[in-house]
Amino acid sequence: MLKRLIFVGILVAFATSDNVVYKDCGSKTGAITTVGVTPCPNEPCLLKKGSNISMAITFTTKEEVTKISTDVYAVLLGKKLPFPNFPYPDGCKDSGLSCPLKSGGTFKYNSTLHVDSDYPAIKVLVWWQLADQNGDIIFCFEVPAEITN
């Protein structure tokens, strides 16, 4: 999603809609096919306070994946700040995925994030990654976003 990140703890409600442009930030054991976030009709993605953001990432695997950890960050002033209280850290649960994932397979990862009303209105770069059982990044991408009232 993305809980309070007040400057030194900034929100990271990331969004990418209907296959937005993203930057791969270090995918290793997988490859992203598409990134979609709703709503996000334009870039940067506008994340309205009090709303929910839905996302879907289609990706392929290069190795078998038995465990997935999900990390979400807000990149602000060049610093990567972890998204506090992210409700879905286990990528094998509540994401449309069922581990293990076979090597060479194509999968769709889904998540929903709530943009808390207390988040500051600010421009951020959202960094989203899934790591495997060895800590290797399955996929990682970043998308520009703006938290709005």
TrEMBL record:
Keywords noted in UniProt: Disulfide bond, Secreted, Signal
Stretch forming the signal peptide: 1-17
Annotated protein name in UniProt: NPC intracellular cholesterol transporter 2
Pfam families: E1_DerP2_DerF2
Sequence ranges assigned to domain MD-2-related lipid-recognition in this UniProt record: 22-145
Organism, scientific name: Branchiostoma floridae (Florida lancelet)
One annotated Gene Ontology cellular component of this protein: extracellular region
InterPro entries: Ig_E-set (IPR014756), ML_dom (IPR003172), ML_Npc2-like (IPR033916), NPC2-like (IPR039670)
Encoding gene per record: LOC118422688
Major subcellular site: secreted
Lineage top rank: taxon: Eukaryota
One example GO MF annotation: sterol binding
Subcellular location(s) per record: Secreted
